[in-house]
Amino acid sequence: MTPTLPTVLIVDDEIRSQEALRRTLDEDFEVFTASSAADALAILEREFIQIVLSDQRMPGTSGVQLLREVRERWPDAVRIIISGYTDSEDIIAGINDGGIYQYLLKPWQPEQLLLTLRGAAEMHRLQRENQRLSLDLKVASPVLRQRVAGKKEASRRRFGADALLRAPDSPMNALCALVAKVADFDIPVLLTGESGTGKELLARALHYGSGRSEQAFVVENCGAVPDTLLESELFGARRGAFTGAHEDREGLFRQADNGSILLDEIGETSAAFQVKLLRVLQEGEVRPVGAARPVAVDVRVIAATNRDLEADVREGRFREDLYYRLAAITIAVPPLRDRRMDIPLIAQQYVDSAQQSLGRTFDPLGADVLACLQAYRWPGNVRELRNEVLRMIALSDGPRLAAAHLSPRVLRAAEDHQEPELQLLAGLDGDLKTRLEALEARIVKESLIRHRWNKTRAAAELGLSRVGLRSKLARYGLETG
């Protein structure tokens, strides 16, 4: 990326003088011009100006008056005055009170002008570096270092991959191991899976397991914000850029500078927005709405979607180049129905959390409740499971959470999710003795067929003697001679 030139604002009501100054400075500086103090303040509102070079004698507001206001509102800007009058009381006062860095006497010489402004640019750089070093020294103190390290470790325990609840045989184990492995590599990650599967939790694990964990982690649901507002929400906006923009908006990318941002439901964005996001990822800079210049940002982007983005790329609904920018690594999060072994742990965690927030005590979830929860398919995934637990808590009269308080759809699933043998018995006619005999006959016949009617092997499998097997064959009419 081309190095950024120092910025200088020339304020002079004489156009020819403006142009002479611009021509002298144009190669070494990014030059802005204004013909009045009001125009200068407007430019300072929307641009990052490092040096203000102002003529003293202008209609209305003098150069010294302007630079005093600049000092109040933009104290980091280096202020220089140009005048043809060395004995001006205003100029002397401006220098004495520290508001003006230097003044140039007319007629100025190009070499002297360049030398002065290069010194001003270096002074601005040193001021910013000194501010940064002062902050670093504060953070480097032993007490603060210990505090920061403790906070970082607490965040890792709370949000890291190891904090995600899962059973020893859960498919989430391999997924969490992958998250822990790639967290410290500063590459974009795409999380895919149904809504409510815990993609945001994994995104937090990626952030808090990385070197950016001490910086901000911000989240934006791209599907919940109208496309017209999404750009200003993420990239920022200048005051007055559109109706309702009454003040500068920093934007989430700048809030997440040196940290991470989760762009949830990225598949819902428009083609126009995808072009702008691609530029941000390519250039490492955002352009606030209404701003003339972009602003550099250093952000790790994590994207999430419940759509099949590869299919959307093939069908032209999502840009292919943006997809590959976002999906350096793709992590597919399984739905809750594919990890039923995790349901008891997650459900019990919701109960424990409710105990703390409500100040009530509940018994551990019983086997009947867990059986019902594990039989259901959970189309709403973890969010739906949480709602069912809260429903039982709200309807309970005491510490015991009863299966009867689950939603009818969950109870119906439990009734339908019977063991195959029980389903078979339920479909047979007659009393219990008759049904059991019919089931036994089926089991004996299946064993004989499996062993090609070898009675010795079938009897051994069924735990019967040959005489016992012959008796059952005769009883159920299965003897073939």
UniProtKB/TrEMBL annotation:
Keyword Transcription annotated: yes
The record ties this protein, via InterPro entries, to: AAA+_ATPase, AAA_lid_NorR, CheY-like_superfamily, Homeodomain-like_sf, HTH_Fis, P-loop_NTPase, Sig_transdc_resp-reg_receiver, Sigma_54_int
> Which UniProt keyword terms apply here?
ATP-binding, DNA-binding, Nucleotide-binding, Phosphoprotein, Transcription, Transcription regulation
Q: Which GO terms describe its molecular function?
A: ATP binding; sequence-specific DNA binding
Its BP terms in the Gene Ontology are:
phosphorelay signal transduction system; regulation of DNA-templated transcription
Response regulatory domain segment(s)? 7-121
The superkingdom of the source organism is Bacteria
Which residues does the record list as 4-aspartylphosphate (modified residue)?
A: D55
Which Pfam families does this chain map to? AAA_lid_14 (PF25601), HTH_8 (PF02954), Response_reg (PF00072), Sigma54_activat (PF00158)
The protein's name:
Two-component system, NtrC family, response regulator HupR/HoxA
Q: Which organism is it from?
A: Aromatoleum tolulyticum
